[in-house]
């Protein structure tokens, strides 16, 4: 049995709270159980230097954790003077995932930065950030459409959402929390679009190597969970 | 008239939300109008190197702002590689203010770090952080008392709270929001205890120098506002 | 009694030595007793990026301490890779204080940087830096006037000087040296103009909170001391 | 057709040159075509601070690129003051991959660092680094065995090797070079053991999302290629 | 007797391997015995900011060491966040030495960076880097000449090469290896041109100060060795 | 003729001012004409980590320049976040030079740091720093002897002093000031002991390479100048 008491395929309670920022063009407080991530999209009328005059825009992400988002307080990255390897790896993943569903030419020469700050962590912060980041990006693009800056349908190509699946006590489980993640044999993150296309797969054997068969089980579980997440995204933006 | 439509002495709606963290020993989401600061107290069973074997503990604070807490997105300090002068100045002020009401000997050889992270900024973030930080510190000390680590009454000497007052359009006003702060002639931050003792005064003439008389007006206004804040703290911890 | 043997209101010997630099447009070696600060003003025909084409100039300050300016050698900030919070706080204060008496529009699109480097420290380095920095700024503006770049009287609006006052052994004392500062209950820095306007007040309770009455005593003492400092500035620039 | 003229499943010429260091305990210059990586294993009789007295050792990796390993010169990371996100991501991957086949308890309280420095880059540097890094690790463990520090067979559990596969012009191809990598639709890196267990999977859709079917094709191709690489490792260490 | 068994004036085996890079405009793997330095010249069509529109180009160098180039593994400079004083000192020396034989006006507004990365160190890395760096620079200029960008003979004024000489066990010896360097009383590096002009002399007494007479002995020894090195350069570029 | 109007061998006015610090164990304000360097020696009862329990002490130096020590204001190194290559090179040279005349075993397990801060620069700052640094070191050792910590004569082995010589307009000149240094063909720094032993030679051809004959002229000129400097040191410490 899972420490959380959930069934193997059972996800945690997922919620998206929109309109949580006075300032940002798009905003979403996403919760996957006790994992809470504030996703704020910022529009800027400029692109990174290496993209100047290229006729297209850019979507990027930054990721951070409050020092006491975790069980033990971690050192503040601003104070230690650099972002750690884990932080950089995650924010690159979020950025790639969001760009996978955006038509950068149709966006025009602008940059959208989605800041994903973990207010409370309990496993799966990167998958929550991608899934909630999409909502913030959606609201930012709707904000732009209202001001006749873009046509939403030309820029946003699809939904994107993410889930972690793992092998825990010999069984395939979905949406691992911190306790499960810490003792899972294998942990994999999947990013997929609303139409079921795969955007990213990152699977790691924490202990013993895993087999192709086991991996296929993880992928099947992820497909189902991401389908559910996309449904929830649709409900959230319909409100 | 004030841009906010408030009367000169009128503060913004102030609220303290406790129990907002699964992990921290003390926690408070404080709101001064649209200024929202998450204050999380972390207890560690060690002291800074320069205080080892000195027979007393330490209370310190760290301050941060989410990049899009503000109207324009600011660069993430973790990414720029250092904390700016404003950040360092504010976190030193919060730390001094909280230490002013703590008996460090009675705390024992432990450190409490109060992380104050601004989720949304609209002026007065440092005064909200001090006022809400006190609640987080209070809850941390109660947490310790429950575990028989300390006697709360020996460690916590008094309340501490803070407010900004300024001279806006020739008039003394309390609790400036961002718009008022930007065009005030003079801006002063006051930190006082529950018994009315002064812990910190920081007054700055933004435009013309101010007179002793004007300053006394600011101080009187601050006294009254801080009295109100302390009352609200008492209600919050009584719940 | 004060460790220095001085009477409560008695300041240390104050002197301003001008023309101490072969290169700088304005220069002053200021001494408040054993506190020695070299203030050098540098004129540059450019403004910070955020002020470009705004039709006005900028006055800023930088502060540093030689590693052995103090009783124990401190680590060189250039070697530790960053300026500490105290340094940043002080140089921001010096800059604000000097700008309070300068008409930035009349200065034109230029920047004056006043470097205040502490050669020897014995308490009150920031107040000495502001008071001596004003002399360096004055000489820089006279240098510019000689070259018909500005009209001095339009740019320089007033004198500015600073003093620290504190409560030591229950008594209000002026111009604390290091020994007094280390054991004072309350320490406050005041920055005022030649006409008595207040530019900055920074008061901190080191031990017990202080009362409004005590604070008014500090302010009165500061007023008197700053009056004396401004007189000394006038003598210095008349030579 | 592939730009390299290779058949879809055809790998580049792979070679392992051992004994290329006067100093290192294990060394291998690995070449995957024009991608050349120097892998040097260093043994130290200490472990990272967080592993002290835990009764086991550690294997870690560092990755670097000479500034002109690439077509355009890149800025030297030592000069820019930090390792980029890509570098950190890759060296974490190499470390995890090597640890997957090492019994850390049997290693004892020692650390082996495998430095993988890219002398020339033409795509696939991380897969070459893992595959050649294993040889360097092997030689380091043999060096230790000769000195009776460990029993090789208890420490080294299996081979580990890696390959990148991608979808290029609609076809599954193995071992992408830089030109192919730049225009592939999907790029995935696979790390597997000698017995066929999967250690890491990292798949990224560069353009369009990919399907489960396409991914299975990549995995099959990787399995075959890694089988070949393990054979070549066996020949190399038999010499 | 020398630890290396060489005669006092005997240099180590010196070799230059050209065409060792798929990408660089000029390349040379230089070996002075067990000291191996990879020198790669990169041409860029831009100059440093301070040289813009000055009508001339720039030649500069960067120096690095692989972490395990040495007997004990050293910390990677990219990871420690800065280049050490020794590194900066050496790369400044290499840059000055190469510029001494280049006509920067005839080069045009371009920059050539010669990266000298030590793959294996056994003393004399800086002298090997200068001597091999000249070959890389030569090949880069020939590459440019082929593309009619410059006239080689107008840009390259002479050869430049370098050697270390020292006083070991009371005797003048040439081309010290690490073991000799570690226990030499005096160590001096000499950089000279093909025509025998002196470009740089750096002599340091490690233990006892040395006399003028001893220094003249070192200089004579260096002259002879550099003559030999220049001959070897001529052979290398003739191939 | 020299821009300074001096004769070829003529040095600038040299002076040593002792007792210029309230805090440092040894102190000297050295002036070579308009080059002014404050040298402060600090004694610490600990050694660097790599020298622990080695039964000997350490002498080291740090070098800095006030931002406006020069004609144009330079960026403060503390603010730019690192010490430049020139700074590191110079402070390493000063440290080596002073250690050349100290018996580190006789010093005991202590460290003396000589901070050399340039208050005003006009060429020759490193040679002034070495020459004045010796005075500060001398006074520090005498301070220790008074407290029976060491025997001065066992620790201090000799004087050390330094001078720059160059070839200016075809002529050998001593003690170059900034103007001469900027346009000299060759610039060399010499460090020698009181008994005439050579500690360091650093010669650089700024334009054309120089000949052995020219170099010998520089060395002869340096010998004479350093003899004079040592005489002046003797007078200074006799006062």
TrEMBL record, chains A, B, C, D, E, F:
Listed SUPFAM superfamilies: Ribonuclease PH domain 2-like, Ribosomal protein S5 domain 2-like
Keywords: Nucleotidyltransferase, RNA-binding, rRNA processing, Transferase, tRNA processing, tRNA-binding
Role description: Phosphorolytic 3'-5' exoribonuclease that plays an important role in tRNA 3'-end maturation. Removes nucleotide residues following the 3'-CCA terminus of tRNAs; can also add nucleotides to the ends of RNA molecules by using nucleoside diphosphates as substrates, but this may not be physiologically important. Probably plays a role in initiation of 16S rRNA degradation (leading to ribosome degradation) during starvation.
Gene3D superfamilies: GHMP Kinase, N-terminal domain
Family the UniProt entry places it in: Belongs to the RNase PH family.
Metal-binding recorded as keyword: no
Descriptive protein name: Ribonuclease PH
Major enzyme class: transferase
Residue positions binding phosphate: 86, 124-126
Keyword tRNA processing on entry: yes
HAMAP family per UniProt: RNase_PH (MF_00564)
Annotated GO MF terms: 3'-5'-RNA exonuclease activity; tRNA binding; tRNA nucleotidyltransferase activity
GO biological process: rRNA 3'-end processing; rRNA catabolic process; tRNA processing
InterPro entries: ExoRNase_PH_dom1 (IPR001247), ExoRNase_PH_dom2 (IPR015847), ExoRNase_PH_dom2_sf (IPR036345), PNPase/RNase_PH_dom_sf (IPR027408), Ribosomal_Su5_D2-typ_SF (IPR020568), RNase_PH (IPR050080), RNase_PH_bac-type (IPR002381), RNase_PH_CS (IPR018336)
Subunit structure of this chain's protein: Homohexameric ring arranged as a trimer of dimers.
Gene field: rph
Signal peptide: none
Source organism, top-level taxon: Bacteria
Catalytic function, reaction form: tRNA(n+1) + phosphate = tRNA(n) + a ribonucleoside 5'-diphosphate
E.C. number: 2.7.7.56
Pfam family, one: RNase_PH_C
Record-annotated Exoribonuclease phosphorolytic domain positions: 10-140, 160-224
NCBIfam families registered for this protein in UniProt: RNasePH (TIGR01966)
